[in-house]
Amino acid sequence: MTDTPLPSSDAADITEGAPAMDEPLHEARLWRDDGWTARVIKNEDDEGWAVEMIKDGEAEPALVGPWTMGRNKKDPKPLDTSAFNTLVKTASEVLRRHEQQLRAQLHKEVRVATADGNDELDVTLDIVPDEDEPYALLTALDTFGEQLAQVQVAPNFKLSKASAAAWVENGFRRPG
Prior knowledge:
Helices cover about 20% and strands about 30% of the residues. It has helices spanning about 80-105, 160-170, and strands spanning about 25, 30-35, 35-40, 50-55, 65, 105-115, 120-130, 135-140, 145-155. The strands form 2 sheets. The chain has a 5-stranded antiparallel beta sheet, with helices on one face.
């Protein structure tokens, strides 16, 4: 029986002397530090260069953008500390905005009067985007943030002041 070498990709190659994934690496076209990797790549859209920023543990880049040509107008400008720090800041902001947008899509909140009309409640709808069985949680909170009731509803439940008030008036029974 002969040993057949396994195929390898450049990205997966681990060579002796190469820094581990959590160790800083500062090269002209590859910079890894502070939980981020910047990689200068050939721009597929034109003849220039691009840089991609990948957060450690993520499969897809958080940011891909054009990269400056070097002085010879042929090769890319090498990465440096200042450029890397700017890229990290920009990519972090992109991720933060994406998380805010996702949260806004998955979390809704309205304020309604209690059944007796003497106080107000916050009613929230939090969608759980499970691939197999998505659902949402409808929750009533008093003015101190204490949970008064919670029921599971369909992920397409429409939360409005009217639907929240109806739920409160119905004694927090699961909406039909």
